[in-house]
Amino acid sequence: MANFQKPKGTLDILPSESGVWLYVEDFIKKQTELYGFKQIRFPTFEATELFCRGVGGSTDIVQKEMYTFIDKDGSSLTLRPEGTACVARSVLENGLYAGAMPIKLYYLSNFFRREKPQAGRSREFWQFGTELYGSDGPEADATVIMLANSIFEKLGLKNVELKINSIGCPKCRPAYRDALKKHFEKNSDELCETCKGRLDTNPLRILDCKSPICKEIAEGAPVTIDFLCDDCKEHFEKLKCLLSGCGIKFEVDTNIVRGLDYYSKTVFEFINESIGAQSTVCGGGRYDGLIEELGGQPLGGVGFGMGLTRLIQSLKDENLLPEDSSFTDVYISPLGERAKSTAFTLVDSLRNKGIIAETDLCSRSLKAQMKYADKTGVRFVMVIGDNEIDNNEAVLQNMKTGDKIKVNLSSDSIMEYVSI
């Protein structure tokens, strides 16, 4: 028999861990909906061209990391590597732009990129994201930043820092691009092969290259905020005022450009250096030209993506995760065939009343059943046999304290103690 293993760069989230994930996801959903965002779900795969146009042909994602395959009808499909292009396609295809503005959407989904697996980075990863369409103002930028910040704050994280920048718009970007190109041309022979190609197509992407040599060459490069047009300057200054007015601490970091072509004006990242090299736990910005690039009318947009693995690791590092509360409330241990039937009916009645209840399904001895109950962290145990059934009474034992009490063989009687 083959000894199968999960594909490289993927994760098994086991029952011992899934409670943490459910806790974090539930918290995120509730906090996001306080801001008026509604959940959207989209396909696991999309037309490859969506990402080539929406994400950008010069990005690492499109050039190196996408899982692409040819369907039986000859069309090219790609496992979703990110969510913003997927949401933009859905907004456009389903005519959401014709409804009430702004459109405020969020998702909790898995994505796929063929990257080098390392701590905090896998080839299948889970991300929480928001997309806000229909507002060009800095108030929209501030809203999504404040939402992300509120999640970190209310979860209790202390080591997360917000860094913001502006990378300009199509009006002021050409002058910056020319200055950037001149800077990199001085050392073009030393650039990695990918960045040599970017020099003519999109030199801004060189700033985001992970090559140590390219990073060194990028030091001292012109910065975007020195080339902003009046509109971009005003937008950025208003954003800073809005964040400061709401008590949001931030640092202007001119090195932040984000790795996707659709960004314009505002870009931002939430950083947690304590979790290692992959320290960005949330990143996003504005993408006013994305809908237009996909064939729609101009529609301002802003949003972010938050890596759930890195968020959970941050919570673990600061001991902020709750204790596992998914333990079974009561385990009813039957002795004999008659007791099996009674126990089976009783646990069904308890479950119908919201009590997590189990009974033996493996015809085990009493000793084996008690060992199972102990291993799985059962809160209360009750053993029933013929005598208990005849007397309609059994002993309910608290496994933590050892206390015992006699109860009737009814769900109501058991619930008096188990639900406390």
Describe the structure.
- With 420 residues, the protein is α+β, with helices and mostly antiparallel strands.
- The chain is built from 15 helices and 16 strands.
- The chain has helices spanning 15-34, 48-54, 60-65, 84-93, 138-155, 173-185, 193-201, 212-218, 230-245, 290-293, 308-317, 337-352, 366-375, 386-391, 411-418, and strands at residues 38-39, 45-47, 68-70, 76-79, 103-112, 124-133, 161-166, 251-252, 264-271, 280-286, 301-307, 330-334, 357-359, 380-384, 393-398, 404-408.
- Strands 1-5-6-11-10-9-7-8 form an 8-stranded mixed beta sheet. The chain has a 5-stranded mixed beta sheet with strand order 13-12-14-15-16, with helices on both faces. The protein has a 3-stranded antiparallel beta sheet with strand order 2-4-3.
- A hairpin with a 5-residue loop joins strand 3 (68-70) and strand 4 (76-79).
- Helix 12 packs across helix 15 (411-418).
- The longest helix is centred in the first third of the chain and has 20 residues, at 15-34.
- The protein is elongated.
Secondary structure: elements and pairs:
Layout: H1 15-34, E1 38-39, E2 45-47, H2 48-54, H3 60-65, E3 68-70, E4 76-79, H4 84-93, E5 103-112, E6 124-133, H5 138-155, E7 161-166, H6 173-185, H7 193-201, H8 212-218, H9 230-245, E8 251-252, E9 264-271, E10 280-286, H10 290-293, E11 301-307, H11 308-317, E12 330-334, H12 337-352, E13 357-359, H13 366-375, E14 380-384, H14 386-391, E15 393-398, E16 404-408, H15 411-418
Parallel strand pairs: 1-5, 7-8, 12-13, 12-14
Antiparallel strand pairs: 2-4, 3-4, 5-6, 6-11, 7-9, 9-10, 10-11, 14-15, 15-16
Helix pairs in contact: 5-9, 12-15
